[in-house]
Amino acid sequence: MKAAAKNCKKKVQVVVAHFREFVAPLLSGKAKAMVVVGSRQEAVRWQFAINKYIKDHGYAIGTLVAFSGEVNDKESGPDGFTETSQTLNPRLRGRDIREAFKGDEYHTLLVANKFQTGFDQPLLCGMYVDKRMAGIQAVQTLSRLNRAHPDKDTTYVLDFVNDPADVLKAFKTYHTTAELSATTDPHLVFDLRAKLDAAGHYDDFDVDRVVTVEMKPDAKQSELVAALEPVQDRLMKRYKAAQAAIRVALPRPSKLNDLFGNDTSKQDLLRYVNGTLLGKVAESATLQQ
After folding, report:
1. Is 195 inside any structural domain?
2. 44-63 pLDDT, tens per residue?
3. What is the DSSP pairing of strand 32-37 with strand 63-66?
4. Which end of the chain is more exposed for a tag (fewer CB within 10 A), N or C?
5. Both 121 and 80 in a single domain?
């Protein structure tokens, strides 16, 4: 159960990050997204997880969750949950979810076996899929993105579980000219973050300083530059120290001809070694600091 909860949290981070960067700016900032999950219980847990993440980071993203009937999930709370529960959709106030989702208040809609067919929302530009789908269900669900809007020319699908080849096969059953563009690994951003964190060029204080500026509505470019400056200075000092170490350890470029004559391949090899050692020295300097 703990592993499943941790996995859900990671997916929530991916969804929110992708939505903010790629989907939210579309249609002059009015674009919306749908999150398709595998069960009503998952819908409840996703809603709690995504709302907590959004609140913790101060993001202005409104979410709705839609499913039929009542869900009993002791992991989420002692009482049963419905889509009108105050803990899930507190600002719904008796409105129909379709109508509420049309306004500017809500940006993402979590669904479980609901609104995957017959749901027409032209502002829908992104879909995040955490549910096994095949055949007509896959076609009908992903086709929610096809609803026309005058300014709509870009849509995104991020699928956590389905094989792209299976999805393409499902579409080809009904659309003989269907094609599938290259897919993106949603975990790439976390792999990159892990590498950057491990490099040791910044700490939590540096991150918080930049985030504070990014979250400030009227922040100026100069403020962001100032927030990044300590990290830049740290990097440049380590880089210059590494360069100095290389100069001491290896021959100056003027001596390349003395060493290798006109053999440019050997000169290129030495330059490559220089560059490699520079990286190693910089890495060593980072670890020592």
Report:
1. no
2. 999 999 999 999 999 999 99
3. unpaired
4. N
5. yes
Convert the pLDDT of each residue in 101-160 to its tens digit: 999 999 999 999 888 877 889 999 999 999 999 888 888 899 899 888 999 999 999 999
Over residues 220-236, the pLDDT tens digits come to 888 888 989 998 888 88
E strand or H helix at 129: strand 124-130
Kindly report, residue by residue over 207-266, the tens digit of the pLDDT: 888 888 887 777 788 888 898 999 888 888 888 887 777 666 655 555 555 555 555 555
b (16+ CB within 10 A) / e for 142-172: bebbeeeeeebeebbbbbbebeeeebeebbe
Q: In which domain, by residue range, is 81 found?
A: 2-184
Same domain, 208 and 276: yes
Same domain, 174 and 222: no
Distance from C-alpha of 183 to C-alpha of 158, rounded to nearest angstrom: 8
* Long-range contacts formed by 95-101: CB under 8 A, 24+ apart: 97/64, 97/66, 100/64, 101/32, 101/64
Rounded Cα distance, 88 and 175, in Å: 38
**Distances in whole angstroms, Cα of residue 286 to Cα of each of 208, 227, 247, 279:** 21, 21, 19, 11
Residue 280: phi, psi to the nearest 5? -65, -40
* pTM value surpassing 0.70: no
